[in-house]
């Protein structure tokens, strides 16, 4: 019988293993203290025990699967309370996906309380413990093996891997796995949760993963729920944001536009090349056909081929006047008589005219005392009524303006990389130069010194603490400092913290850094250091915000450190704003003067750009003064017509030139003053560009007026006032044509919604018009006085001194430049063989410009707006080189949305039950296409955090049961109870009154280890519309020029068309130059393009009008006369004047001056001159309008019987 007993026992063991293991525990209750407030469990080998009644609520809440029969478990109520506390952190981040959290609860409930513990738990280390109360000796469980089914682990991980942590722009597992979410998997996640070094587990639990029995143990392999499955009837599957399995196909970005290509080459190049070749074929075919026809029938072989032959295709202006000719002649005559009478009046009454001109100038310019200057880039480039501005205004009003940013980018160029060798095992890890321990200490000293900067404002001391962003204040008043040193609590001692012995270092700052960049919100790293990663301000420090120059996500390879001090900004509170600006000024001065040979620092403050824009304007004043000085000197000397050295001081017109320049500048100050009266602020572009523009227009008119007089002979019996009146009658219509065209064009350009273009157009239009008025009044009077001085042989400037008599008098004469244009340049340009070459070249250039029109880049690199020597230039370059993340993007739902209803909530939120096209879900989808949308990370959503915060399972939302006041999760008080009951209704989202009742509590709560769900949530539009703005402004300007030219040219439709076509060619060619010279299209270049339209009018209108009023017999002769008479004045008045001033701009310190002013001004002058003085006369000689017979007859009648009749044929 003795021999059969053990055999029977073995048989029972073999046949009834389930009964033996199914009801057996390995522990029960809590014993000794493990660390802090964490305790070991007590070893217990026996059947499960009935749970006391006080634990029923807890088991129903945490492990409802165990609530049956007499609830016999391997845990007591205290173990359940400990389990609840330990689950608070994962609960806050994973409960938004119910099936994920269900599986996690399964893992921990089986571990803690399962009646079948002994199947899958194996104790490997214990120690005795003497209970101080009962004095009984008990056994602590110090180490344990947990056999977990690999299938269960994988299923649990798959259900949780997509869950988002809305407040941290990261996956929840990135906060719960001890490493980056991308590196987390089923096994290392569970290993981390059971590792006592994570700061949560009281003792070491070693998970062993297998689906098959191992060492007589049956792994825990409970059924799981997929994230696309519902846990119960009250909950649904996880949202698309938290479970990719519930989503449709992953959104795909639209394919990039296919390049338009023909024969493998750019289509625009091919099309314009074919078009140009076709034009040349047709043009030269027609030219040679006409040439052969004329040679065969009308020209002998000894007669030279020229345009002035008796029968020429150019000599077709014969016949009777058309119906519009009398109207045009009448209008021309009316203008001539009006200006003639007005000119005579001004010469006869110079004192009166000059006095009232000065009074007018003084009255208008006095408005400058009210001047306002706009330097804010937002006000310059973004229209007040634009969508972006309205949205920013809305945001600022409701949430306050975005924080002011003070930022440093620190590099260590003299320090080499080093390699960290983990002990006892692990691959070597390279660390970039700025992550050297000595460099980090030096950077921490710098950071601390910046924190201690003080400024003075209104005799008050301003510190960083007074103005910084402290999101958890008043509970935590630490300033937000986004710095890698916040991983070390901004402390030298924490940075030096290491664990090791005399031979090896087991953990140091390398270990902590590698952990924190993977889990920046962690309160305790998993190394032996156990140091927190969370910043001292209570928020996470994301590595992509504080490190730069790394590859992929290898943050340890960083070559730069980024330190950012967010400073509070203020809406309509100038006092507080100026306090912040005062501190920023001291910050800039400090960093500028900071010396450390080991560190290279690029930095910027919120006020830096505005400061540097102001300094730029001041630094380039000298360059601009030299530029205008050269132009003034040239004008003063070029106006005079010196016949001999003895009459140098008599015939010079320096005083007249200076007076003319002062009139031009007075028109600018009048324009600025008038608009300052109205309250329209100035911009830097207005100050820098308009004087240049008005000088071009004004000086051109001065040269035309003066040089026309110098070439004119006083008729017999004609007085000075009559002569100047007649001269003004001849040229003033041309001056009026150009000035009024530009004025109307600029005023219509003010319809632009872009503030910089709108303001420029207003000021420019008024300045050009006032300049014209002053020139036909004040300048004409001054010209009359200067001629009287010259006729009396008085010296220029020193008009009281009479010069030596040399027997000569003031006579009509032609300048060398006029004779060159008349005798050499005009005949050469209009030769029969030269004209086709000109047409071919200019059409070729036009074709090229059209081909590259769509290739001009749009935008304005920030650094171009800064002076060459600005510290901000280096900062912008460092941003481009090192930074990996841009500014935050806010999506604001305007007031009126109903958050209290399920429908309203589902339209916004991103968690369980939310619409798949909700706001948060759409932004989440966009973040998945970051290379296309540029949204780098998933959205932070307060409403999803609120729903997690208010759940009854969470310890976040609690109230005092006596006062119903909010009770923070960190408060330990039995009177604090959960906000909502643990019922199916209580587990639902709050609606109606409940939503609004608990929301203030959520908004006032701060994150803490017990509840990480509190609130610590911490823009140029011009490029969206620049193409439309460019088309609109240039189109309106051209249309205005056409209409004015049509009227003022006396209804000469074809003349207006030709003039505007030439101006359009100049504008198109400007785009070609922009492409060749690397000038991008933005608000600055658009202003210059609008201005080039105005200056092009100067180059083209005078030549066109001179052609229309010419009485020569052929188009070639009329073009030659127009070019000879007006070409020299245009060339000397605009081209030479501007060229001297423009060249100086190349030496400006400001890059924006060098690129957008020097290059574009030079291009517009050269293109304007070549088109106005080369192409336009040739075009007019081919297709210019026929002679206006009525005007020709009127001219002949007007000068019949006078010496002037002879001059008509010069």
Q: How far is the first residue's CA from the last residue's CA?
A: 152 Å
**Overall number of strands:** 25
Task: Specify the biggest β-sheet.
Answer: 5 strands, mixed
**Structural class per helix/strand content?**
alpha+beta
Task: Tell the overall outline.
Answer: elongated
In what range is the share of β-strand residues? 5-15%
Instruction: Specify the number of helices.
Output: 42
Helicity level = 40-55%
Strands, helices and their partners?
Layout: H1 4-15, H2 17-22, E1 25-35, E2 38-46, E3 49-50, H3 56-62, E4 72-73, H4 77-86, H5 88-94, H6 98-113, E5 121-130, E6 137-148, H7 150-160, E7 164-165, E8 170-171, H8 173-176, H9 186-193, E9 204-209, E10 261-262, E11 265-266, H10 267-297, H11 325-348, H12 350-365, E12 373-374, H13 377-381, H14 387-399, E13 404-411, E14 418-420, E15 429-431, H15 437-451, E16 454-457, E17 460-463, H16 464-467, H17 492-496, E18 499-500, E19 505-507, H18 509-516, H19 543-546, E20 547-548, E21 560-567, H20 574-593, E22 600-604, H21 608-619, H22 621-638, H23 648-651, H24 654-678, E23 682-683, H25 684-711, H26 720-749, H27 755-791, H28 816-829, H29 834-851, H30 871-882, H31 902-906, H32 919-927, H33 930-933, H34 942-950, E24 958-960, E25 976-978, H35 992-1004, H36 1022-1048, H37 1053-1076, H38 1083-1109, H39 1115-1145, H40 1151-1183, H41 1189-1199, H42 1204-1207
Parallel strand pairs: 6-9, 12-23
Antiparallel strand pairs: 1-2, 2-6, 3-4, 5-6, 7-8, 10-11, 13-21, 13-22, 14-15, 16-17, 18-19, 20-21, 24-25
């Amino acid at each position: 019988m003795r021999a059969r007993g053990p055999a029977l026992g073995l048989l029972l063991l073999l046949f009834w293993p389930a009964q033996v293991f199914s009801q057996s525990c390995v522990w029960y209750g809590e014993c000794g203290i493990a660390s802090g407030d964490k305790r070991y469990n007590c070893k217990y080998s026996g059947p499960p025990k009935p749970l006391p009644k006080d634990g029923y609520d807890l088991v129903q809440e945490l492990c409802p699967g165990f609530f049956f029969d007499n609830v016999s478990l391997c845990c007591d109520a205290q173990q359940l309370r400990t389990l609840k506390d330990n689950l608070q952190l994962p609960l806050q981040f994973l409960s938004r996906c119910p099936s994920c959290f269900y599986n996690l609860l399964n893992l921990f409930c089986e571990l803690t309380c399962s009646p079948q513990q002994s199947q899958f738990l194996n104790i490997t280390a214990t120690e005795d413990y003497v209970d101080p109360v009962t004095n009984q000796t008990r056994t602590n469980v110090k180490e344990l093996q947990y056999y977990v089914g690999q299938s269960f682990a994988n299923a649990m991980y798959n259900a949780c891997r997509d869950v988002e942590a809305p407040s941290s722009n990261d996956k929840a597992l990135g906060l719960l796995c001890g490493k980056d979410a991308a590196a987390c998997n089923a096994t290392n996640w569970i290993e981390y949760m059971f590792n006592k070094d994570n700061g949560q587990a009281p003792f070491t639990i070693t998970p062993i993963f297998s689906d098959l029995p191992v060492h007589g143990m049956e792994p825990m392999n409970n059924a799981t729920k997929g994230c696309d499955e519902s846990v119960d009837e009250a909950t649904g599957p996880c949202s698309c944001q938290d479970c990719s399995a519930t989503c449709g196909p992953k959104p795909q970005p639209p394919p990039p536009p296919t390049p338009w290509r023909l024969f493998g080459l750019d289509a625009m190049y091919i099309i314009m090349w074919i078009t140009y070749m076709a034009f040349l074929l047709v043009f030269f075919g027609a030219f040679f056909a006409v040439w052969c026809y004329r040679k065969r029938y009308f020209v002998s072989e000894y007669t030279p081929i020229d345009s002035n032959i008796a029968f020429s295709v150019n000599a077709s202006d014969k016949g009777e006047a058309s119906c519009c000719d009398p109207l045009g002649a009448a209008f021309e005559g009316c203008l001539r008589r009006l200006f003639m009478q007005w000119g005579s009046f001004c010469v006869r009454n110079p004192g009166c005219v000059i006095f009232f001109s000065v009074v007018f100038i003084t009255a208008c310019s006095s408005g400058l005392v009210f001047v306002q200057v706009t330097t804010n880039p937002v006000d310059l480039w973004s229209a007040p009524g634009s969508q972006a501005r309205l949205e920013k205004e809305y945001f600022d009003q409701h949430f306050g303006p975005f924080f002011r940013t003070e930022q440093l980018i620190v590099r260590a160029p003299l320090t080499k990389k080093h390699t960290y060798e983990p002990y006892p095992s692990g691959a070597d890890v390279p660390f970039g130069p700025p992550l050297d321990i000595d460099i980090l200490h030096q950077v921490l000293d710098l950071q601390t010194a910046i924190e201690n900067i003080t400024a003075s404002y209104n005799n008050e001391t301003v510190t960083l603490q007074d103005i910084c962003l402290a999101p958890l204040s008043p509970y935590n008043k630490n300033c937000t400092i986004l710095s890698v040193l916040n991983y070390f609590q901004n402390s030298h001692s924490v940075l030096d913290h290491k664990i090791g012995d005399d031979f090896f270092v087991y953990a140091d700052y390398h270990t902590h850094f590698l952990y924190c960049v993977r889990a920046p919100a962690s309160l305790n790293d998993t190394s032996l250091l156990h140091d927190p990663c969370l910043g001292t301000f209570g928020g996470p420090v994301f590595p992509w915000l504080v490190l730069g120059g790394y590859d992929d996500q290898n943050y340890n390879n960083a070559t730069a450190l980024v330190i950012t001090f967010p400073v509070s900004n203020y809406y309509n509170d100038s006092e507080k704003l100026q306090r912040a600006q005062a501190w920023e000024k001291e910050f800039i001065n400090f960093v500028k003067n900071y010396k450390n040979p080991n560190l290279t620092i690029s930095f910027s403050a919120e006020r830096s750009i505005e400061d540097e824009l102001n300094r730029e304007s001041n630094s380039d004043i000298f360059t601009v003064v030299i530029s205008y000085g050269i132009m003034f000197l040239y004008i003063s000397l070029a106006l005079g017509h010196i016949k001999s050295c003895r009459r140098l001081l008599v015939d010079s017109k320096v005083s007249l030139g200076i007076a003319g320049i002062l009139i031009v500048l007075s028109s600018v100050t009048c324009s600025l003053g008038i608009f300052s009266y109205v309250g329209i602020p100035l911009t830097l572009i207005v100050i820098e560009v308009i004087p240049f523009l008005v000088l071009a227009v004004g000086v051109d008119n001065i040269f035309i007026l003066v040089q026309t007089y110098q070439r004119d002979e006083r008729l017999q019996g004609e007085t000075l006032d009559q002569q100047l009146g007649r001269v003004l009658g001849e040229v003033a219509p041309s001056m009026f044509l150009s000035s009024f065209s530009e004025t109307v064009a600029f005023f219509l350009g003010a319809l632009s919604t872009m503030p910089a273009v709108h303001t420029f157009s207003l000021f420019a239009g008024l300045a050009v018009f006032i300049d014209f008025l002053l020139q036909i009044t004040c300048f004409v009077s001054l010209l009359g006085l200067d001629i009287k001085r010259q006729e009396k042989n008085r010296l220029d400037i020193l008009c009281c001194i009479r010069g030596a008599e040399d027997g000569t008098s003031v006579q009509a004469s032609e300048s060398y430049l006029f004779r060159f244009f008349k005798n050499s340049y005009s005949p050469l340009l209009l030769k029969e063989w030269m004209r086709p070459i000109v047409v071919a070249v200019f059409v070729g250039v036009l074709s090229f410009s059209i081909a590259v029109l769509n290739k001009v880049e749009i935008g304005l690199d920030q650094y171009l707006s800064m002076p060459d020597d600005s510290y901000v230039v280096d900062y912008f370059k460092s941003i481009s080189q090192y930074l990996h993340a841009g500014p935050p993007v806010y999506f604001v739902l305007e007031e009126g949305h109903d958050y209290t209803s399920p429908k309203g909530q589902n339209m916004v939120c991103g968690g369980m039950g939310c619409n798949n096209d909700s706001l948060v879900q759409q932004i989440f989808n966009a973040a998945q296409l970051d290379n296309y949308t540029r949204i780098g990370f998933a959205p932070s959503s307060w409403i999803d955090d609120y729903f997690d915060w208010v759940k009854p399972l969470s310890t976040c939302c609690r109230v005092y049961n006596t006062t119903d006041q909010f009770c923070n999760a960190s408060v330990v008080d039995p009177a604090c109870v959960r906000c909502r009951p643990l019922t199916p209704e209580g587990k639902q989202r709050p609606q109606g009154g409940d939503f609004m009742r608990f929301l203030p509590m959520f908004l006032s709560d701060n994150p803490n280890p017990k509840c990480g769900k509190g609130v610590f949530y911490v823009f140029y539009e011009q490029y969206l519309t620049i193409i439309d703005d460019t088309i609109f402004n240039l189109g309106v300007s051209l249309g205005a020029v056409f209409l004015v030219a049509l009227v003022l040219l006396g209804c000469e439709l074809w003349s207006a068309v030709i003039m505007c076509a030439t101006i359009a060619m100049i504008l198109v060619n400007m785009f070609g130059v922009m492409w060749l010279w690397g000038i991008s299209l933005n608000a600055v270049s658009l202003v210059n393009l609008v201005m080039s339209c105005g200056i092009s009018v100067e180059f083209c209108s005078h030549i066109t009008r001179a052609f229309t009023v010419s009485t020569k017999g052929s188009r070639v002769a009329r073009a030659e006369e127009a070019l000879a008479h007006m070409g020299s004045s245009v060339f000397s008045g605009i081209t030479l004047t501007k060229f001297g001033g423009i060249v100086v701009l190349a030496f400006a310190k400001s890059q924006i001056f060098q690129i957008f002013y020097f290059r574009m001004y030079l291009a517009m002058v050269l293109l304007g001159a070549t088109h106005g003085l080369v192409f336009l006369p040739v075009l007019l000689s081919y297709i210019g309008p026929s002679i206006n017979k009525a005007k020709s007859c009127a001219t002949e009648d007007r000068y019949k019987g006078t010496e002037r009749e002879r001059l008509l044929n010069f």
